[in-house]
Amino acid sequence: MSNSVRSREKTKTIIRYVMQDAKDFTLQLPQFSKDSIEYKMCAKITELTQVIQLMHTRTEGNEHLLNLKEKENRKIMEKLEKKIKSRDNMIKELTDELKKSDIEHREAINALSNSLNIEKSSAEGIARERKKISKQLLQTERDLNLAKDDVCRARIIINEKDEIIKRFELLNTGAKEHNEQLKKEISVLRKELSRSQTEAAGLREDQTKLQSSFAASERRNNVLKGKLAQLQSPQSIRSHSAVLHATHNNVTQSGRNTKADLRSSQDEKLSMIVAGYERKCLYRFFFHNGFLLILNYACFKHVEDK
């Protein structure tokens, strides 16, 4: 075998040895020349083995630390699990309490909603009543204003009535004075009545005389009517007119005589009655006889024209 093959086998055995157990060993390098490749490779391998040893020691330390940390972590985990269990129990208790409180809150909310609905309905009723009351208040204010106006009017009327009462009192005092004066005047008038009654008795006698003269004048009037009926022919108009003048003169003379008789009386009423009676007599005379005279005159003129 050549030297190269042998060196390769030796390196393989060293690598196997290192790979099998690299904890505690003292590597005895084969005797190669320092300049040879094998020596350099073996040197490198020794360096690598040392590095591996360091790595192994570090891994063991790390494993020990890891074990310690795992133990601590286990303790911590146990504590945490206990805390978690206690917390879970607390959470369960709290969830139960929350459920109970939720049920209670729901019941309270339902009760509050029912009470709110009742309060809303009552509030609506109260609002309606307030509206009614406000309307009633407005109506009462209007009634109060009207009542105030009525009171003002009543005060004005009372003041007017007071003034009227004062005036009436003044008038009453004046009326009393006037009544006393009237009583005095009535006493005077009664005296005058007694006098006028005595004068009326005399006037009645004069009235009877006038009635007799009125009957005589009516008789004369009837006689004159008969004469006028006879005098309707145109030939007797002149004589009839003379007769009428004579009768008129007689009537006026009789009226003058009655006036002369009445001048002696001092009563004005009797003179008024006599004047009215004369007028009535004259009116009747001219009404009954004037139309006939006009007809006779017209007939006379017609005859003369022919």
TrEMBL record:
The species this protein belongs to is: Oikopleura dioica
Keywords of the record: Coiled coil
Protein name per its UniProtKB record: Uncharacterized protein
- Reading the lineage from the top rank, the first entry is Eukaryota
Parts forming coiled coils: 77-206
